[in-house]
Amino acid sequence: MKKYVDVILPLPLSNLYTYSLAEEMQEDVDVGFRVVVPFGKKKYYTAIVAKVHYDKPQEYEVKEVSEVLDNHPIILADQLELWRWIASYYLCTLGDVYKAAIPSGLKIESETVIVYNKEFEASSPLSDKEQKVLDILENDNELCINLLEKYSGIKNILRIVNHLLDKEAVFIKEELKNNYKPKVEARVRLVDNTLDEDRLNAIFDSLSRAQKQQAMLMKFIELSQWFSDKNLQKEVSKAELIQKSGFSAAIFRELEKKNILETYFHEIGRISDSKIELSEVNTLNDFQVYAYNSIIDSFNKRDVCLLHGVTSSGKTEIYINLIHKVLQAGKQVLYLLPEIALTTQITERLKKVFGDRLGIYHSKFSDAERVEIWQKQLTEKQYDVILGVRSSIFLPFTNLGLVIIDEEHENSYKQQDPAPRYHARSAAIMLASRFQSKVLLGTATPSVESYYNALTGKYALVELNERYKDLELPHIELVDIKELARKKMMTGPFSPILIKNIREALERKEQVILFQNRRGFAPIIECSVCGWVPKCKNCDVSLTYHKNRSMLTCHYCGYTYQMPTVCPACGNVDLKNRGYGTERIEDDVEKLFPEAKVARMDLDTTRTRNSYENIISDFENGNIDILIGTQMISKGLDFDNVSIVGILNADNLLNYPDFRSYERAFQLMAQVAGRAGRKYKRGLVILQTKSAEVPVISQVINNDYQGMYNDQIEEREAFKYPPFYKLICVYVKHRNEDVTVRAAETIAGILRTGLGNRILGPDKPAVARVQNLFIRKILLKIDNRISIAKVRDYLVSVQKSIVADEAFRSVTIYYDVDPM
Ligand code: ADP
Ligand code: ZN
Ligand code: ZN
Prior knowledge:
This protein is of the alpha/beta class. It binds adenosine-5'-diphosphate and zinc ion (2 copies).
């Protein structure tokens, strides 16, 4: 009987597609295997087998699977279930989930660009086809699969490329290219290490007709300092030799063939290169022991526990103790952190205790590294503890015993764009439930939803109010800058008291953190005569001025513009900066405190893997006196010498048109404040605001989480927001504004017939055009009594009927469930 597979393609398709299996493949395929299939005009997609069966589809001509790539599933059954849940809950396709879940190296397709690894040396013989592909790439350096196939004439080239990827002879091209760390280094040495000068001269003579080889050998002698100490084992990195000699690897191969030089591999280890001495788990103090025991107890009754512990109470120490216990029971742990909180600080802390049992999964890692961890998790030698960001929920687990979600309130756990717009907290709880494993949410400032779930008994709640070693929480000094501005006492964005305290801290050789939640130099540029403001031509937003690059940038589409020297509207040359971004603050600080070493940490200064870590370690080592940053500086960093934290303008946080803005402002300010005065003395936070009367400000000052929560939960109930109501946003986008509006109105109209006044809008969002697409938004507020599954089915059916209409065929419709 003919066998068929239903596969998930990396495309937003609502259905699985069926392919047939050739006779010789039938035995080798199962759910979770990768297969290569043609689809549409494209020849190559890596698809995932979701089902194997014998039912020939009737409606269409079935194509054949071109290749089977694996001999074991790379997606496990529990993972596929998680994918299905995400697709259904977040109203997207399995293809969307597939794209987000898997590193690029495991899902190459026709357009994937393959890059040659210059440092590659084969440790086992390559097949003819592999060698052929490599030779082509060595010349061209990078090519997409389609062209590779064309140039090589090899059919079903994906299999060959996958072999080469496994051997790390080639890579997938990535945006962040500079972060590849090779696992082994190819090094070069003389075949005969007892060589003396005479014999060396003889070799040189023998190469007199091969000048390039001669020159390369000369370079080797020079780089290896062969003459300096005859007893040393002389060796040179092969990449260095090739690069510095200026000749190709082919020349080197000639020297190898002649048995003069040889290559060997020096393990430098990528994942566990540090040889740290393992240390014991710290002993918990009495408060921590109490919290620890309460968590364990709570797991007898509840699957999820919320640990609400003030900053520096030792939550991380409690996690470490829990992980230790779970490992002893032979199970795995997933420890989730927001992207920017996953720093060397925390990694090293865990590495010290768990050593090689700890794997780290970060989006700034190269794709090759992520593929390596993925593959390792499918073997017996898998990591027992994964410390990772949002996307690590997709890694293969076989025996999960505990999930820790640190900083559970962080909104970056929610993926915004593209689909799947999933929340890692919800997805992780689903994942855990598949393993009957427990979930610990930890934070100093719980999300209103989680705290509500804890108070109503859905989650267990454990509170830890004592800081480790009785450290005092910082004192928060409120500064009303509205009043000061009226009296003309402000120096730019700095109040006199902030300047005074910074100066005194610098004199005492203490450090300062300044927080401003806007990057760039000035959020708005304005003509002082006619009021002209530069706007993005693709989006309805004003442009941010970046002084360093002398550019105007759109923070929505990334488009950059030259900074005009005159106003294009009236010809005036005086263009004014309005508002303060981190770059401008940095400029001002340098002028006010010329003797201080100043650094800035925001999206613009931390684009590469190491830049962020470098700033942190410079700050830790005292090479920076004043650190200016966006919310990036608020996350999980533990500095010993920070005595002053300045929040320059709390109003930026309060004035977001969003039901979560006060909650978020509280969380952010409490977290930033927590950076002040950790080890030795009480810190001081200077909180500047024009809205001193807003309750959330005094709640921050009094560290009154409960007060904030009570206010917010009351508003949420009164205005129909989560956790009392569930929100789903429907986004409608199109190039033509008219079409967008009509489509949105039609959808809202239909939805209203089914769901009545639970439908709000369509509305024009604050930014109503991005990348030339006009946007309208419809909001669904659904009370908890209504079946969400039915609402979802209804939405999908409405969408189908809309795009069936000729007029709306090209309209993009998507959903954001539980928007942040
Ligand atoms: P949190 O995660 O709640 O912010 P941490 O776990 O980072 O707190 O603890 C704050 C600091 O106190 C860290 O430097 C940590 O090493 C130290 N600390 C906390 N508890 C202990 C303990 N039981 N033994 C040793 N050091 C501890
Ligand atoms: Zn003008
Ligand atoms: Zn733009």
